[in-house]
């Protein structure tokens, strides 16, 4: 092996090793990011439901939380890079069907984006009855994804 070739191959091995390490970290990051994102989604959605139980729900507060929920819905496509499912060995409830049936998963994501946007609009208008109906529809879109794509809690 010439000196040049060995330098190149050492550089290549180093690049591959570094690449592997980076990949593992990015999968971990992706799982952590989506789980905290969903936690926040859950918090905001609960805040909306709690507010609706009051005699005079503050629709401004609901609108602010609905805006966050919609923001999370838009981020979902970035939360599921390949390799971040159960095969990662990480603690995750994401089912492998997410990657096996990407069109179906995209559809479930889209439904959530559409319903949460309608919820924002209803909240901005301040119509409590319309908000309540739209909260149901939005909640339905959470279930529409959890049922096929989220595993039971262990
Ligand atoms: C397009 C699919 C999809 C939609 C829509 C969706 N979720 Fe989820 N959700 C998931 C998946 C998959 C997980 C599991 C993530 C993991 O463990 O890596 C999850 C996890 C969660 C968690 C647990 C987070 C944790 O790790 O503690 C909460 C809470 C949650 N979702 C709430 C909601 C709410 C509320 C909505 C609707 C307002 C919603 N989700 C809509 C797919 C979805």
Question: How would you describe this structure to a colleague?
Answer:
With 154 residues, the protein is mostly helical. It has a single domain, classed as Four Helix Bundle (Hemerythrin (Met), subunit A), CATH 1.20.120. Helix content is 76%, strand content 0%. It has 5 helices and no strands. The protein has helices at residues 3-52, 59-75, 97-100, 102-125, 128-149. The radius of gyration is 21 Å and the shape is elongated. Residues 10-17 have low confidence and may be disordered. The structure holds heme C. Residues 31, 34-35, 38-39, 41-42, 45, 69, 76, 92-94, 108-109, 112, 138, 141-142, 145-146, 149-150 line the site of heme C.
Summarize this structure as a short list of keywords or feature phrases.
single chain; 154 residues; Four Helix Bundle (Hemerythrin (Met), subunit A); 0% strand; elongated
